[in-house]
Amino acid sequence: MVYAPGHFRQLAERRERSGRERLAVGAAVLLATGLAAVVLFSLTSGRGVVARGCVSFGYTTMIGGGQMHRCGAQARALCASRPSTGGIDASFTAALEAACRSAHLSGRR
Predict the structure, then answer these.
(1) Which residues lie closer than 8 Å to 68 by C-beta, 6 or more apart?
(2) Bridge partners, residue 57, by sequence
(3) pTM surpassing 0.85?
(4) In the chain, domain spans
(5) DSSP 8-class letter at 13
(6) Backbone torsions φ then ψ of 77, nearest 5 degrees
(7) CB of 18 closer than 8 Å to CB of 24
(8) Where are the beta strands (DSSP E) in 1-109?
(9) For residue 100, what are the contacts with CB-CB under 8 A and spacing of at least 6?
(10) Phi, psi of 81 (to 5 degrees)
(11) Model pLDDT for residues 20-67, shown as the tens digit of each residue
């Protein structure tokens, strides 16, 4: 195959990037750095230590789920009036029992 004169010289020389290309690369680097920061923050800022006497747990039900956080008298009342085990909300009951045990509020009053 016959190449145009200067073909190999043109490939070997470093091409100067235009302002638009530099801007696109800078925006991509900035976006990737921001995304990495958000991921790092979300991985390191999860649930912390729950204060003694507080219950905090996540649960699932048939129609979704949620987070529960109660402290003091509300936590004691929640742990004392636990729903029965089994049924459609067994995940809620299991999560509540585990949270009450870790908060040292297990046992009916």
Answers:
(1) 55, 56, 57, 58, 59, 78, 95, 96, 99
(2) 68
(3) no
(4) 54-102
(5) S
(6) -65, -40
(7) no
(8) 54-61, 64-71
(9) 55, 75, 78, 79, 82, 106
(10) -110, 50
(11) 999 999 999 999 999 999 998 887 776 556 677 788 888 887 788 888
